Every structure is written in C-alpha cells, then in structure tokens.
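General statements about sequence and structure are easier to judge against a single worked case. When preparing material for the folding task, we compiled for one chain both its residues and its backbone structure tokens. The amino acid sequence and the backbone structure tokens for this protein are reproduced below:
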Amino acid sequence: MKTAVVFIHGFTGGKDTWRNVTGQSFAELLGSEPEITDKFDFFEFDYYTKISNFFNSAPFQKITNLIPFLNRLPGITGRVRTNKPIALLSEQLATYLDLRLDCYENVVLIAHSMGGLIAKDHILHCQSGHGPKPIGYISVAVPHKGALSAILLGPIKNINAKELTPLSEYLDNLNNTWGDQKSNLPPCLYMVAQYDECVQMTSAIPFTVQKSERAIVNHDHSSICKPDSTSDLSYVAVSAFLKKIIYQKDMAAMANVAAAGCTPDYEKEIFVLKMIVCNIGV
C-alpha cells in the first residue's frame, strides 16, 4: 500500500509555495522518479493565512451586504475568514487527514516555515485511528525557535505573527515538548536555507541533531521549497529522505514475514544476519 505525502505551506503561503519559476510543483518533480511514485501519493494541505484579514472579516462582510458591488472586487470572497492559532490549524490538518486520506495507513509531512509548526503540533497530538500515522517529517526552513521578522508584524495584531515571535509562550511550549519527545518522534529531516532572510539557522533546527538529520542548502527562505531540477540539493535531500522511508518500510515488512513464519531457529538467525549486512551496505 502506498504512503501519503502531504505538503503544508507556511504563513501567507499557498499552492505557489511549492512551484518553481516554470510552474512545476515539488510533487510533480518527485513524480519523475518511478521508485518514489510507486510508493507515494502526493497532496497539498491548504489553509487560510494572510497578513491582514480585514477584507474577509465579519464587519467588512456586513458592509458588502449594504454595498453589493464590493463583492465583485478582486480578492473579495464574500466569506468570513480570519487567521487562526497554530494549534487550531493543527486540528484542521488532523481533520483533513482523517476525512480525505483515511484510506492511507501512513503519511509523511513536508512542511515549510509556519507549516512545520502545524505539522509538529499534529505529530505530538495525533491519535491512533484518527487518520494516517505520521512516519516522517521534513522541516523546510521552519522557525522552531521563532522568527525575528515576526516582530515587525506586531502592530497589525496578527495571531500567527504573535505566535512566531521568538520566546512566545506557544512556540516555547511546542519546542520543549518536541524535545522531550525526541525519542518517540518519526524520522525527521531539518532543512536549512543558507541565505534565509526570515529564519536563522539556530531557529531552523529545534535541538542538536546528527548531520544525517539536517541539510543546509544553497537557498533563501522562499526558494528552498521551489527546486528547479532533480539536481537541486533541496530536491535531492527530500528524495533521499523518502527513499529512506521506503527502505525502512521494506525492512519492517520483511521482518514481519519472518516472524510470522514457522522457520527453524538457525534460518531465522541467517535472515537476521542478512538484514544486518544489508543495512551496513546502505
């Protein structure tokens, strides 16, 4: 059975978050590798996020009821929409996974910027039987310890900008819990943009991790999730991580088959030795 891969954009982002200058999405680029498309299906989780939501606020919608032609202006949806706390967006993600991707057993979350915090919150609070189980997490330029640029948005009273401020109560609690649960987390990859103007390297990695769990690539905050080719290191890092997930699932399946069989002890020992040799080769 295939595994779902869900891309989650960040603050003020959307579908264009994952599209390069030619219009090709990250998922479409991954689709060029049969080894990956044979094992994964790709999806994008979208949610409302704006710097200012005045034109989607309830007071403005009341004004459009009095002046109907305003509804014909660009960007006016006629629906009330407001930015919501990350914890609530995490529940929205959980609902999406449960109702839209309930046919999948497992999911890998690839998240950019604030989207990575939504994914973290979901991983920490997901419940068995409520949507596919997270078996992988790719953090793409995520401000685990906050972003200094969020301070500049303080005057507009944006709830997400407040949460993204360094040392905010929510962010501090989330990152501390993430660290406490380090041994129980799914495999993780922390991607850092070398020229990130929004998220410093010290924030893009939540705690001390092994070199195999991080990738520093020649990108800025926006371009890191828009690889232009399969040779782009941003792409290579994600591709390698997904192939590692494939390998781990294959090894787990082989182990389950061996355990279910009634083979003699010496045959089981030989099988285990083969797995160890295989692992060393990788």
User: Anything to note?
Assistant: The mean pLDDT is 87. The CA atoms of residues 163 and 170 lie 6 Å apart.
